[in-house]
Design brief:
Helix content is 36%, strand content 19%. It contains twelve helices and 15 strands. The chain has helices spanning 2-49, 63-68, 82-96, 124-129, 155-158, 172-176, 214-226, 293-309, 359-362, 372-377, 380-388, 394-408; strands spanning 57-62, 72-73, 108-111, 119-122, 159-166, 183-186, 196-199, 232-237, 250-254, 266-270, 273-276, 285-287, 313-321, 332-342, 365-368. α8 (293-309) crosses α12 (394-408).
Length: 410
């Protein structure tokens, strides 16, 4: 009887321990399952909130409407356009995904004391991490498909938007079908947040060399008008004027600081052609707004025709500011172009002690590659010496002006 009771106890204990083990492992399984579900839900949430980029997004716009609303009131704060918001959203996602050569980090602006109100911007990463520039020998150097060009970029990563203009009497889709690839792409070595390139003919079969065309300039003017930011700049560097790639392209970026060149007084040369007055540090032709983006593009090309005809390197900035006539469009910031004839720079551009002289620098924003100490101690006098080293002599500038007068006198 005692042995029977002992055996019964053992069976009960074994049964109880089995139940306990099943409960223990069941509880563990529940905990593990809950943990895995939690991780899965967190992953889903992170994907939901992760920024997404639309590949090859078409940005359609009405050219006629764009021209009719070209001016911005001087006293109002920036009210960003749908283009600004769309482009920046795409740009930020590209940065988040690591498509650039470097993270921008904190950028420092510094206004140099002096009459020219020059602004320096420190960005050392661009000076050391960018793609090595191509060597340029003359301003009419032909396009070479064997060298780097923008048809070689990874379109799914680097193309932000495709510019698709249309007119009201055309359907957007039918007109866009006849347009080549006019792409807005990232500059993978950015100067500022939102720094992009506009490439009018991006693919190798359509590509043209870095020489301004009426078609390309028309799109560059469109690009300026699409933004409502008053310090949005569209830039062009010809060959032998610090262009890095021999494939037609324009830079565009937002400046965090107003530039003196936007409001600098201009002197009339002939009809709608002006030049910055003699107090500005560099000679520049100025072409003002005349009712339409088409007319502005035509006037820009009149000046560039003279420069190319004389084998003169040049930089251009298309920006908003008071009209050079001062009497037209009072109270408005309207599109205008500053075109800088300059000495040839032959070879591949190198980072100088302070900065290179390209379109941005001639407009008054000095992209500084030096040390922090050099940046803090850069003076206006040092900057002016570098800027003036790129200037043509007085006799050449007079000849170019005389020929430009003939173009605008017609």
């Amino acid at each position: 009887m005692r042995l029977y009771r002992t055996a019964s106890k053992r069976r009960l204990l074994i049964a109880a321990s089995g139940v306990y083990e099943r409960l223990h492992w069941g509880r563990s399984a529940i905990i593990v399952t809950i943990g895995l579900l939690t991780i899965y839900i967190l992953l889903l949430l992170s994907r939901t909130h992760r920024p997404k980029r639309v590949i090859n997004m078409n940005f359609e716009y009405d050219r006629e409407l764009l021209s009719s609303s070209a001016g911005l009131p001087q006293l109002e704060l920036d009210n960003l356009s749908s283009f600004d918001n769309t482009m920046m959203e795409q740009w930020d996602v590209a940065m988040h995904k690591g498509y650039f050569r470097y993270k921008l980090g904190e950028l420092r602006y510094r206004q140099l004391p002096g009459k020219q109100a020059l602004v320096a911007l420190s960005n050392r990463a661009r000076g050391t991490l960018r793609r090595p520039p191509e060597s340029m020998c003359h301003i009419n150097q032909p396009f070479n498909p064997d060298k780097f060009h923008f048809g070689l970029i990874k379109a799914d990563k680097e193309v932000l938007l495709k510019m698709k203009p249309f007119f009201r009497w055309f359907s957007a889709s039918s007109h866009a079908d006849h347009e080549p690839n006019n792409d807005i792409i990232i500059n993978d070595s950015p100067i500022e947040r939102g720094h992009i390139l506009m490439v009018p003919h991006r693919t190798a079969t359509e590509a043209s060399p870095q020489s301004a065309t009426e078609y390309g300039v028309r799109y560059a003017v469109d690009l300026l008008l699409l933004s409502q930011h008053r310090h949005w700049l569209v830039l062009f560097n010809s060959l032998c004027a610090l262009a890095s790639v021999n494939h037609l392209h324009f830079h565009a970026l937002y400046s965090n600081e107003a530039l003196a060149s936007q409001t600098w007084p201009a002197v009339n040369v002939c009809n709608s052609l002006y030049r910055l007055d003699d107090n500005y540090h560099s000679f520049a032709f100025v072409v003002g707004w005349r009712q339409s983006s088409e007319q502005l593009a035509l006037d820009i090309m009149r000046v560039i025709k003279v420069l190319v005809g004389n084998n003169v390197a040049h930089n251009m900035v298309i920006m908003r500011g008071p009209d050079p006539s001062a009497a037209l469009y009072p109270g408005l910031l309207v599109p205008k172009a500053l075109i800088f004839p300059r000495k040839h720079f032959v070879g591949a551009k190198q980072q100088s002690v302070h900065f290179n002289v390209a379109a941005l620098e001639l407009a008054g924003l000095l992209l500084h590659y030096g040390s922090q100490e050099e940046f803090e101690h850069l003076t206006e006098q040092e900057a002016l010496e570098t800027l003036k080293a790129a200037q043509l002599d007085a006799a050449t500038l007079k000849q170019l002006t005389d020929e430009a007068v003939q173009e605008f006198a017609v």
